């Protein structure tokens, strides 16, 4: 199953995350199928690629709870 989830990068105590589409069986920081955006929880900054995200959701990819909340804030589901 394809999941849209967060992939951590950044240094200690300063996390940043990439929003990626990847197989649910792959480790958190493993190889991603596609990079869909960026999220920084410290500044609440997000950069999203709307078209690829909508395409993946229509193909049946499931967002994790945190990613779903980010998408609701960005009004992704209203554009579908």
Structural features, described:
The chain has 80 residues and is of the alpha+beta class. The chain has a single domain (2-78), classed as 2-Layer Sandwich (S16 Ribosomal Protein, Chain: A), CATH 3.30.1320. It is built from two helices and five strands. A five-stranded mixed beta sheet has the order 4-3-2-1-5. β1 (2-11) and β2 (14-23) form a beta hairpin. It is globular. The two termini are 21 Å apart. 20% of the residues are buried.
Descriptors:
80 residues; alpha+beta; globular
In terms of topology, how is this protein built?
Layout: E1 2-11, E2 14-23, E3 34-40, E4 45-48, H1 50-58, E5 62-63, H2 65-74
Parallel strand pairs: 1-5
Antiparallel strand pairs: 1-2, 2-3, 3-4
Subcellular location: Plastid, Chloroplast
Pfam families: Ribosomal_S16
Keywords: Chloroplast, Plastid, Ribonucleoprotein, Ribosomal protein
Outline:
By secondary structure, this protein is an alpha+beta fold. 24% of the residues lie in helices and 41% in strands.
Largest sheet: 5 strands, mixed
Secondary structure tally: strands: 5
Taking Cα atoms only, what radius of gyration do you get, to the nearest Å?
A: 12 Å
- CATH-derived topology: S16 Ribosomal Protein, Chain: A
Q: What is the CATH class designation?
A: Alpha Beta
Return the string of H and E elements.
Answer: EEEEHEH
Alpha plus pi helix count = 2
- CATH homologous group name: Ribosomal protein S16
What strand line-up does the widest sheet have?
4-3-2-1-5
Regions with little confidence, pLDDT below 50 for 5+ residues:
none
What count of structural domains?
1
User: Class by helix and strand content?
Assistant: alpha+beta
Q: In which range does the helix fraction lie?
A: 10-25%
GO biological process, one term: mitochondrial translation
Protein name: Small ribosomal subunit protein bS16c
Keywords: Chloroplast, Plastid, Ribonucleoprotein, Ribosomal protein
Family: Belongs to the bacterial ribosomal protein bS16 family.
């Amino acid at each position: 199953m394809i999941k849209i989830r967060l992939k951590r990068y950044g240094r200690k105590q300063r996390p940043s995350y990439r929003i990626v589409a990847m197989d649910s069986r792959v480790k958190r920081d493993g190889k991603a199928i596609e990079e869909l955006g960026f999220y920084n929880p410290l500044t609440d900054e997000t950069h999203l690629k709307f078209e690829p995200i909508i395409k993946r959701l229509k193909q049946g990819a499931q967002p994790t709870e945190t990613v779903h909340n980010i998408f609701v804030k960005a009004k992704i589901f209203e554009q579908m």
